[in-house]
Amino acid sequence: MLGTIIPARRFAIAMVRRMLQADLPAAVRSDEDVEAEVWRNYNWNFSVNVIDGAFFLLAQSLMSATTILPFFVTRLTDNPFYIGLLAVIANGGWFFPQLLSAGPIERTDRKKPWLINLGFFLERMPLVLLTATTLLAVSSPSWALALFLLAFATYNFGAGIIAPAWQDLLAVCFPATRRGRLMGVTMFVGGIAGALGAIGSSRILETLPFPRNFLILFGLATILMFAGWAVLALTREPVRQVPRTAESRLRIWTRLGRILRRDRNFRRFLTARGLLAVGGMGMAFVTAAAISKWDVSGGTVGSYTVALLVGQSASNLLFGLLADRKGHKVALVLGGLAAASGYVIAGLAALPLLYYLVFVLLGVYFSSTFVSGLMIVLEFTGPEQRPTYVGITNSIIGTINVVIPLLGGWLATISYGYLFALSAAAGLLGVLLMAFWVADPRHIAENT
């Protein structure tokens, strides 16, 4: 038995290494040579990644993990446990694997094969199975539910494995002073596409019978994800030999401890960023608070969603340009202030009309965490440790995002006022620490 397992394991490792092009040599290149190639391909890579982002966000609007997927699960079972399990898979599946893959990603010279070759099987193919589960929804809902959860977990786990490679690819393809506008434009264009997708998905769900409506939605989302994969494959990566250090071969937990002990500014950043994440606790409960206070209609809730998208889309472009000029820390501080202000208004509002402003401010916060929350991490270290820094940050913030809604749900049963007050206080503390305790990593790099 053992004699069969060992060759099979070696074959699997060899196939993965071949997919990742791990054994292909890479030239030792100067920073000036790489920088020249980056600028030469800047417009091409910018266009390719914006188009990929638009495809991705449009696909996500057709299989939203906060609206459409829970709705599909409710058609398969009336047990609310599976709705909660869906949220745990969505957050934990994407964030937690990043610590495991960060080390191997660091040791490979090419990042694009992680997304294109390995990502095809780990992230894109599971969506085919997810779509196919709709065919069992009527005849065997239990099997459909089991296969759906398996496909959804595989998709999120696969996305989590390759996520550090995606962020590292952006780091090597775009200068630090251009990443903000890349994310801002991507989120702006993708936000418009996502809004149109949300309108279309609502009509499909209303006009077509179950499960054909979900078959069409999931099928379209899968096609869009594969289209984005094909476009992303056109990215021109400036390949160079990554420095191999003794530390890069250490176990991830050993390296994590060393980084947190040595890098005081990064440790401070994680503390402030974690508090900002805790400050996001109230976001999921603002709509419920409005319904509880004034019994607002479904149409009003839909209008609140539009207000959220308006705040998000407008600030995407603003934060992108601001981050490129002043650094991502400024955008995170402004986003945190917007969220805290929104919670104060939500707690004190006497009219449902004021909740439109609340949702605009929360859209501003969401934009800052996506545009700058992801990109600022790339500036804390050089290319030799960048994936590990990404994995540490995303795993810690992901853990908070998984756990903190449970506290929010408990506080909501007592008082929405308490929930919003705690969210605002945590967010403000995070803003103060980010503004006055954390040094902007870009400015540190410029002064050294």
Overview of this protein structure:
The chain has 448 residues and is mainly α. It has two domains: 38-242, Growth Hormone, Chain: A (Up-down Bundle), CATH 1.20.1250; 247-442, MFS general substrate transporter like domains (Growth Hormone, Chain: A). Helices cover 77% and strands 0% of the residues. The chain has helices at 2-19, 31-40, 42-62, 68-74, 81-95, 98-106, 112-124, 126-132, 141-173, 179-207, 212-232, 252-262, 264-279, 286-294, 298-326, 328-348, 355-375, 386-414, 416-436, 441-446. The mean pLDDT is 89.
Q: What is the arithmetic mean of pLDDT? A: 89
Instruction: State the CATH class of the largest domain.
Output: Mainly Alpha
Spatial extent as radius of gyration: 22 Å
Got a strand count? Answer: 0
The name of the CATH superfamily of the largest domain reads: MFS general substrate transporter like domains
Distance between the termini: 57 Å
Largest sheet: none
- Domain tally: 2
Strand content: under 5%
Residues in helix, %: over 70%
Helix and strand composition category: mainly alpha
Keywords: Membrane, Transmembrane, Transmembrane helix
Organism: Caldilineaceae bacterium SB0675_bin_29
Subcellular location: Cell membrane
GO molecular function, one term: transmembrane transporter activity
